[in-house]
Write a structure and sequence with these properties.
This protein is mostly helical and 152 residues long. The protein has a domain at 49-115: Rubrerythrin, domain 2. 41% of the residues lie in helices and 7% in strands. It has helices spanning 10-21, 40-50, 102-115, 126-150, and strands spanning 54-57, 63-64, 90-93. Strands 2-1-3 form a 3-stranded antiparallel beta sheet, with no helix packed on it.
Amino acid sequence: MALALAKPRPAVAGAQRAAMRGTAVQARPVLPERRAAARAPLAVSARATKQQTAYICIDCGYIYDGSEGPFDKLPSSYRCPVCSAPKRRFKPYAAGGGKNDAKSMNARYERMQSEGGSKGGSKVDGGAFLAAGVAAAAALAGLYFFLSSQYN
């Protein structure tokens, strides 16, 4: 009694041959569609946090609000539109924005002066320079009298 093997169906036989050759098509699971709108607020909020830093001119109190682009991207030849101070005279200003009218700028400038930021940008006390000048003048006078007594 001979067992008769059933002939494979043609579709199954073709799939077996394709699997042997490595050309079988893999079925991909159906994934839900992703919404592109869900990512947009993240990008906008990230950009907004970068531009919140305002820069203030320490010579006149003008606040650069980013109207010409990010402050870091401005050329080094940028100058304050009010007092023509160079870009290096601007410092980050954390107190937020404000108006750039004369009254507000004067108030900010006075506040910076009272906090210790002098107009020249130096934090050294003026008395130290005076004492150094007097000491240098006394040393020069002493040297003059010493040398004139030696060669007379």
